[in-house]
Predict the 3D structure of the following.
Amino acid sequence: MPHSLISEIETKYIRSLVSREKRVDSRGLNDIRPITIECGIVEKANGSARVTLGNTKVIVGVKAEIGTPYPDTPNSGVITCAAEFIPMASPYFEPGPPNEEAVELARVVDRGIRESKMVDLEKLCIIPNEKVWILFVDIYIIDHAGNLFDASSLAAVSALLTTKIPRTEVEDGKVKILDERIPLPINNIPISLTFAKIDDQLCVDPILEEENVMDCRITIVYDVNNNLVAMQKGERGALTTQDIYKAVDLAETMTKEIREKYISPILKQEVS
Amino acid sequence: MALYFKNRQIVVPGDLLAEGAYKPGDGTFREGNRIYSSVVGLAELKGKIVQVVAFEGAYTPKAGDVVIGKVVDVKMTSWRIDIKSPYQAIMHPVNVFERRLDPLKDDLRRYFDVGDTLVAKIMSFDRTRAPLLTTKERGLGKLQGGYLVEMLPTKIPRLIGRRGSMINMIKKETGCQIIIGQNGIVWVSGKSFEDEERVIKAIRQIEREAHTSGLTDRVRDLIHK
Amino acid sequence: MEENQGNSQIKLLTEDNLRLDGRKLDELRPIKLEVGVLSRADGSAYIEQGKSKILAAVYGPRELHPRHLAQPDEALLQCIYRMATFSVDERKSPAPSRRETELSKVITESLAPAVFLKYFPRASIDVYIQVIQADGGTRCSSITAASLALADAGIPLRDLVAACAAGKIDGKIALDLSDIEDKNGQADLPVAIMPRKKLTTLLQMDGFMTKEEFIEAYELAVKGCQKIYEMQREVLIQKYINIQDEVSEEGSEQNRGG
């Protein structure tokens, strides 16, 4: 939101609430908004998910194609993430190709997936040096009410967990696409958590009004084994060392809770 | 002469409301002998006027309205104010101060700067020029502290209530100062966050249930919880 | 309206004139409509028609930027129609295609006659359409949803706009073609009307038809539009009746001491 459109009253109000450890929507500083995840909403996609985080809504679709690998990783499949901040999601989003905010978001979501090795890319190799699976993870923000990072990451991860690709066979150096559908080879599940820094406090899962007044934000991504796989500080303020360590600690506990509460049911569904 | 709706019936754009010697009011339009609804809302007959009270819609500035706006730009001889309308408002020093300002000596920013919120009255508006604001009357001017709640402008009358019944009840029950802008912005200032929060909750409920009956009692109950 | 493969080996009709999805020739696909589905947009709607899934949202009337595009006597209505990369069988590039550009234009022109643009000079009314999944007839579903989003935003309208396509499959005139029928059929005719006075605001034809076939298809499409119009009215009214019902249920529960 353009800086000039945020009034001093709003800024002061949110800051005074936060200084008393309260928030505009009555949450505690460490409370996340209600989350819903719906998988498989786009049958034509190989995988898809719709996530709501409070009023924020994101849809992710995964399309799998067979193509040539990158020359420096000839035995490896490819994952590529992109984000579209479509104009319907906010009065301040303009039509056009992804701007720096959309690119940043896509790359951070991608980083979590890549560095945690969520998808075993070697197993997506069909003919070494020639044919591999290429996964396009496309993130569409459809309603912006704050914290696009966590909503997008959760949607991308949920979509990948429920993605199905055709089984393939190689006959005489040619790839045969079979009718059977199999899930992706999944080794890990990155979960992200974003904080907004407002004065001296860190607010988990910032709502839009908080993002409008925050000094900066920090996103932290943990994997299943409590390893850090991605971090990103954003916006034009600064973090103290204390802020960073506090966020890293809180994120360790809370990402575990998110995984247990929201990802486990998806995994159970897939197995059944 | 024929009426084609029951009082306070929900109608949609294009619905035929009346035929004959009726007058088209807000939310309606006339084609030949017939009056149709142009919006989604409640159809009503007020004397000979057929009108539809719209559920939603942008704020259209009207001379005499009190509005709450945010200063978004300061020019040499005027302020530009966002009043949440398709038309940005302008305010000139001559409509703020008694004495004349010298633009070369007096910086307008000293009085209202970008980010300030103010209560003002619309002096004039026609669709070819920007709405002009004034803060010369009592009760108008810069707002400090408190909180701003945005509400659909179409629901503001319900927040006020018949002869102020709803808003006076809320003020009394919460002890908060409340200033209502016809453009759908409400300023709330109380002694405690809890009091202000009760007003905000009440406003949200009114916005959602404006078209139902028994609302004043339900809002009073909500405030007491 | 997709690139017509012309003659195809796929049979689209059984001996009893039943279609691949079991429908009769004059049957609409199952339609689900919702309004007010987004929190930021001034108005919004969601439609599922068969397997097509489309979101429409409206912002406006609002200030138009850049200023030099503003029209002195009326609002500028602009619709942008875009398909998600994963909405079709083969992944679509995110960059706007010529088809999306054409559809944006015809959709804008199908809605403009219904809007009281003169009420808001110099302002803009923006309609955004996002196809989440495409299975034929997306421009018609988009218009149906966009019209609901305009009404949901409180923008004054002369009428709603309802859209529906008819076409020719295996030589017979059919209503509301799915993707496979469009790709393998002989003609596609998308139509949009303002139902009150049966004024046509969208009319495109792509294929091969005699004049008589066209008339049959056009009248069938208009009938389809009228059925869809009833659904649009219903969903707009139901949104507010639901709240009235909720509120009176709470009230009577309290009276019962529940």
